[in-house]
From TrEMBL:
Family per similarity comment: Belongs to the class-I aminoacyl-tRNA synthetase family.
UniProt keyword ATP-binding, yes or no: yes
Catalytic reactions on record: tRNA(Trp) + L-tryptophan + ATP = L-tryptophyl-tRNA(Trp) + AMP + diphosphate + H(+)
Biological process, per Gene Ontology: tryptophanyl-tRNA aminoacylation
Source species of the chain: Bombilactobacillus bombi
Keywords: Aminoacyl-tRNA synthetase, ATP-binding, Ligase, Nucleotide-binding, Protein biosynthesis
Alphabetical list of PROSITE patterns matching this protein: AA_TRNA_LIGASE_I (PS00178)
Transmembrane segments: none
Gene Ontology, cellular component aspect: cytosol
Protein name per Swiss-Prot or TrEMBL: Tryptophan--tRNA ligase
Enzyme Commission number(s) from the entry: 6.1.1.2
NCBIfam families reported in the protein's UniProt record: trpS (TIGR00233)
Pfam families: tRNA-synt_1b (PF00579)
An MF annotation (GO) of this entry: ATP binding
């Protein structure tokens, strides 16, 4: 019997990118293979609809892309349960009960949600479901009694919210039904990969990403356009490393630390052009992406099999979530008959 339970998720709002890989996917594959965890991996289609309700086709299309990305990075459906959020009705009922334990003021204070509201230009029209998505996320985590949630740094406020709900629920209804989750974050400095444009976060909704499914040619085009040091105009000029996205990516994905240190010293002294550093980054990234591309190709030939994996995973997830829901109902006392 595994000692711990993991729940993690991604929103099907596009294909997954190298930020997801470093922020979360890589860790999931590692943990799945330790055998210490029962792992649930959710495609959060309902959460994706909170800011895409009028564009369901995008979510539908992205669902299969995210599933392919999972399988491509090495998530193994025999070891991890991959499932689809909307296929688990218990999550909605849990969300409704939890919403009554959270104040509107608390939801508005969530720093990640605040930043996302700015970014998404909702103006005065923030969908209520969007503001409340951290509560629905708490339902996702607690339905599986997950104690471990491997995620990127942007998810810390969500975990804090989930823990608050667990504590409030257990004290209000005087039963230890729900389990407090801990976040499992990537090593320092790798929690949030910046975008190609130098934006603080690579995001599939911001059009600033290198996708796991990008061809070598696409990766080349994107790297050549990447943001570096705007002051570094001539090759002989000294360049800056800090805030230089190309070097930030090298720090995260490179394996040859000596070579990276040499490149940095040369760049700072002057005489090293952006293109040379970018070519090296291209090599480094393709080394990471090649095996992922190969596995993806195999599954792309058999989408029926990918949907079957999702269906089976959703069945398993449903059984677990229904069990938690019945305990929650009993604790509140809405088990009348
Ligand atoms: P969206 O813009 O639709 O919200 P996203 O790119 O933020 O998409 P999510 O599906 O919201 O992706 O996030 C899935 C997981 O990936 C989360 O654990 C999140 O912390 C992590 N993650 C997302 N972007 C990055 C990034 N740039 N660096 C590291 N981790 C990331
Ligand atoms: Mg996000």
């Amino acid at each position: 019997m595994a000692k711990h339970t993991i729940l993690t998720a991604d929103r099907p709002t596009g294909k997954l990118h190298i930020g997801h890989y470093i922020g979360s996917l890589k860790n999931r594959v590692k943990l799945q293979n330790t055998g210490d965890y029962r792992t649930f991996i959710m495609i959060a289609d309902m959460q994706a609809l909170t800011d895409n309700a009028r564009n369901p086709e995008k979510i539908r299309r992205s669902l299969i892309e995210v599933a392919l990305d999972y399988l491509a990075v090495g998530i193994d459906p025999k070891k991890s349960t991959i499932f689809v959020q909307s296929q688990i009705p218990a999550l909605n009922e849990l969300t409704m009960y939890y919403l009554d334990l959270v104040t509107l003021a608390r939801l508005k204070r969530n720093p990640t949600v605040k930043a996302e509201i700015q970014q998404k230009n909702f103006g005065g029209s923030v969908p209520a479901g969007f503001l409340a998505y951290p509560v629905s996320q708490a339902a996702d985590i607690t339905a599986f009694k997950a104690d471990t949630v491997p995620v990127g740094d942007d998810q810390e406020p969500m975990l804090e919210q989930a823990r608050e709900i667990v504590r409030t629920f257990n004290t209000t209804y005087q039963r230890e039904v729900l389990v407090e989750p801990e976040g499992l974050f990537p090593p320092k400095g790798q929690g949030r990969l910046p975008g190609l444009d130098g934006n603080a976060k690579m995001s599939k909704s911001l059009n600033n990403a290198i996708y796991l499914s990008d061809s070598a040619d696409e990766v080349h085009q994107k790297i050549m356009k990447m943001y570096t040091d705007p002051q570094h105009v001539h090759v002989e000029d000294p360049g800056r490393i800090e805030g230089n996205t190309v070097f930030e990516y090298l720090d995260v994905f490179g394996t040859d630390q000596d070579q990276i240190a040499d490149l940095k010293a040369h760049y700072q002294a002057g005489g090293l052009g952006d293109v040379k550093v970018k070519r090296y980054l291209e090599e480094v990234l393709n080394e990471v992406l090649d095996p992922i591309r190969q596995r993806r190709q195999v599954y792309e030939q058999d989408l029926g099999e990918v949907y079957r994996i999702l269906q089976e995973g959703s069945q398993t997830a449903n059984e677990v979530a229904e069990q938690t829901l019945s305990e929650v109902r009993a604790a509140i006392g809405v088990n009348y008959f």
